[in-house]
Write a structure and sequence with these properties.
Layout lengths: L30 H114 L1
Length: 145
């Protein structure tokens, strides 16, 4: 036996739109149906706004990530340049320290030599002083004669 298929009644085409004034609704259209049409229209417009916002948000995210990437690259480049300059300064400072240490040792040796020369001259002067005093006495005696 064949079962009867229940047929649902297909609603007739609705001619009202969201901008149709309520007074112009036909007999088959109820206010509730009209409001449903308005809500559907608002819903589709809201969906467009949401999709636009999502697209804009996605674009902003992409631009932000791109900008962040460029800033990070520039920061790494600057950090690298600073590190190179810092290593160069450290190397130059090390060279300068070695040079100054060598100059200090040279000056220290020269100072020891000068001190030794002063001691030699001092001892020679100590030996010459009595002789000079003796010469002064002899010159004074010759002048009196």
């Amino acid at each position: 036996m064949k079962s009867k298929k229940s047929r649902t009644k297909v609603p007739e085409a609705i001619e009202s739109r969201s901008d149709t004034p309520v007074g112009e609704l036909g007999q088959k259209e109820t206010l509730m149906h009209y409001n449903a049409v308005l809500i559907e229209d608002l819903t589709s417009k809201m969906q467009l706004v949401i999709e636009s916002m999502q697209a804009m948000g996605s674009r902003i995210d992409t631009q932000f990530e791109d900008m962040e990437s460029r800033i990070n690259a520039r920061f790494k480049d600057m950090e690298s340049r600073i590190n190179i300059q810092f290593r160069d300064i450290e190397a130059r400072f090390g060279d300068l320290r070695k040079y100054m240490d060598n100059r200090f040792l040279t000056l220290e040796g020269a100072l020891r030599g000068v001190k030794g020369d002063i001691l030699i001259l001092d001892s020679k002067f100590d030996r010459l002083c009595p002789r000079i005093d003796n010469h002064d006495q002899r010159i004074a005696a010759l002048e009196q004669a």
